[in-house]
Structure prediction request, 212 residues.
Amino acid sequence: MTNKNRNLWFNWHSMSKWDDKYSGDGYLFGTRPNRFLVESVAGVTPCPALSLGEGEGRNAVYLASLGFDVTALDQSEIGLRKARQLARNFNVPLTTVQADLNEYIIAPSTWDLIMCFFVHLPSAERAPLHRKVVQGLRPGGIYILEGLSPDQFKLAQRGPKDPDQCYDLSVVRSELIGLDFRIAHQIVRLLDDAEAEQGNIAVTQVLAVKPF
Prediction:
């Protein structure tokens, strides 16, 4: 199998997996926003925002409810369909785009805020995505990231099986050269109350700003 065919198979398999996960009647991860997002945008003036790997819409709809002009990007049309329904439930506008993160073009100097929550790509795919994030932010723009750290393997098994898909903070820093880090740490926290499972998870949290 060539590398191109292998990537096509991986992308199709990943899309099918998330379509299956999102096909239930409820919302897989609930409808309340991620706590780190809520804390990070407190006091931020509403602006154009891009959500990478948004899924069913809980974070994008929260930003839209605050007045942000949000574009939600995900490979799963089923997830985005539920995101649009959630936006209608809250009576807020939401733009959705179905696309693979590896192929989506983030236009340079376009976004004031980009966010990415629990999108666990291999580092060979995440590093180019992060370069596009840095280029896509306007001066003063904010990047907000949270995902499982390698310390998750010391806790209950959830998330990716490959440590390379977790967010090692030193690696993330190297991928986001050009941004100033305001928050950058690896911590253990409780799962969000809205999530079906409870317990501790090990995460990396980043809030970084593109300098003027």
User: Anything to note?
Assistant: The first helix runs from residue 3 to 21. Residues 30 and 47 are 25 Å apart (CA to CA).
